[in-house]
Input
Amino acid sequence: MKAKFSILCPSFNHEKYVSFFIQSLLKQSFKDFELIIVDDCSSDKNVEKIKYFKDERIKLIQHSYNQGINASLNTAFHHSKGDLLVFCASDDMLEPNFLELAYKHFKENEELICLYPRLTSIDENNNLIKDTNKITITNRMEILRHIFLKDHCLSSPGLTLKRQAFEKIFPLRHSLCNHQDTFINVNLLTMGEILITDEKLVRYRKNSSHSNISAYGNATKLREKLELDFVLDLYLDIKNLDFIEEIFKDDIKELGMKPFEDTLDFILAMIALNKGDETRRIWAYHKIMSFYKDKSRSDLLYERYNFTFKDFLSLTNLVQKDDLVLIKYKKYKRLFRYSLFLCIFLLIFIIFMVV
Output
């Protein structure tokens, strides 16, 4: 018999927490589910803890070597049967009414693609800690804009989605780690309606330093920068002009360039170049370089926007605009210092002359 929910759970070295996670599932008020938990070659007693539970709804699959989060999700999905998928980490916990409320939301709204539950933060000992996982943006278009120009603003633990939606992006890239959930979410946001629940349905585990238990340490920020290109490239796959104009309507107005279907890539890059951080600006400059590659493209940009090679060269000023601000700051600081020294010297000279 096919389960209504398939809970897809990558698990790695979570011997201290995986029992709490499984118990939270077995306590669900909605019983029609299967748990596919994929151990990604743990070096602790994670598998032993999982095997302790003798429930036929629990399927344990073991990777023969460590392959990463996305590979584990791919494996879990391959062995799943449910109409609705839930993505969970094995160090988190679900509230007892999680599946019941999720099922209710999807039943009441057939257009719903996916659901994002709000979170409660817990520490290593399951104690509640100060909630730092507040989602402040709930509009789908605003979320897409925020991710493109700033950062990922969705809480992904407990993400619940329709099977046919995930089939469109399956299989996931094995190489993505820090932006693996961002990649999934941007794809889902472009498909259709989403819901961020009012209810807090997931207990998201953090350690005493308020970082996620599964965090990888000092390489995280660098990895995020290196992976960001794959996320931003997703926006270039959106060829719906009306959709892009809805997401970036204020940015397009401020840019002063009317988008066309054949210049969408250029317009998106120009928006990122003007509004994004340094990593996004470098991505944008490279995309404009790729777009501005031959006579047909240069003619197109000149015809539409009076854009010339001189304008292209000036874009480097936008890429390094933070550096330019710093240079000006240092310049004015240096002038101020010289002026101060001159004033002190003149004051001393005047006092000496008077005396």
In short: The mean pLDDT is 90. The first helix runs from residue 18 to 26.
